[in-house]
Amino acid sequence: MSGTWANRIAEARRRGLLTPVKPGEAGGGMTDKAMKLLNPAWSPEADALIDAQIAEMEGEA
Question: Which of 7, 10, 36, 51 places its Cα 20 to 30 Å from the Cα of 17?
Answer without folding.
Answer: 51
